[in-house]
Amino acid sequence: MRAALSLNKVTGINQVIIGATFVSVATTLPEVFVSIFAVAADNHGIAVGNALGAMIANIALVLALSIAFLPSGIKRNEVLGKTIFLLVVTIVVFLFALNLQVSWYEGVILLAAFIAFLVYNAVRGSRRCTPVIPKPLCRDVSQEKVNRRNAYFKIAAGFIIGQVMLIFGAFALVENGEKLAHLFGISETVVGFTVIAIGTSLPELTTAIVSIRRKSGGLAVGNVIGANVINCTLLLGVCGIIGDVKGVSLPVSRETVFIAIPVLFIFTVIAVLPMLIRGRVYRWQGFVLLASYLAYVSYLVIAQPV
Questions:
Q1: Total of domains in the chain
Q2: Beta bridge mates, 251
Q3: What is the pLDDT of residue 290?
Q4: Residues 67 and 285 sit within 8 Å (Cβ to Cβ)
Q5: Is residue 139 part of a domain?
Q6: pLDDT tens-place string over residues 207-241
Q7: DSSP per-residue letters across 48-116
Q8: Is residue 82 part of a domain?
């Protein structure tokens, strides 16, 4: 988080763009690793549940907390493209999964969408990149280059160290949480949508909490939108390809297609619509999403879809 804010100060790149790229890629890696290992071990319910469950948790838990405790103005042009992209890829995943599976070529399409998302943000970021590192008083050009190089090195080191800590923490929680859930007889799909999804969303939650403390609402919004795009494209895309390599397209349960994905879409609309219309978010959105998320998780545990 500190590294991301430093990058914003050093380069002048907008917080939403940084959140949707650098921070979201870093905080989404736990979900990517967990789902890849789950597919490799033929635990498809955990893989899909983790991907979509993390997206729901990101919107209705992480972003909801940010909105509830730090309602703020959001520039419409900063989130318009990203939110439309997120809504479109969510619909695309729903259409792909209507036959209750994601094939390798659908995975390739999702990966292409992920690359397009990164390119889109890179282009927007480069247009707004205005370095603000103060020039040394002696006006020594070589010293200025050294200062900038040191600044970028510290930012990179901060990202790497933070990511390593997040991955180890997320895996420890997921491993023990999965065992605990199985002890209570909870199905594989429910484990993926709840325990593992929340566990792998902890990096995003940590980012949101730090954003609230530092009053950097744009970074939290960008992080969640970017993380969900990555989960929907990179994560499901890679899992679809790996599943097909093992001889079976990635299976998706009927409950996931007709309940989880529509719930995700509705939660996303509740979260982003006021941003797009009025250019800000409101506390009521956060509390509505939190209450809805609690109700959804309760439904999962009670209904026990297999």
A1: 1
A2: 101
A3: 94
A4: yes
A5: no
A6: 777 766 766 656 667 778 888 998 899 989 999 99
A7: HHHHHHHHHHIIIIIIHHHHHH---B--HHHHHHHHHHHHHHHHHHHHHGGGSEE-HHHHHHHHHHHHH
A8: yes
pLDDT (tens digit per residue) in 262-291: 999 999 999 988 888 887 788 899 999 999
Find the length of the chain. Answer: 306
Max CA distance (Å), the chain: 69
CATH code, domain with 218: 1.20.1420.30
Q: What separation in angstroms does the CA of 274 have from each of 82, 86, 282, 298? A: 15, 16, 8, 27
Could you tell me the residue range of the domain that residue 90 belongs to? Answer: 2-134+144-303
In a domain, 204, yes or no: yes
pLDDT: is 261 or 305 the higher one?
261
Cβ of 278: how many Cβ atoms within 10 Å? 12
Q: Is the pLDDT of residue 94 over 60?
A: yes
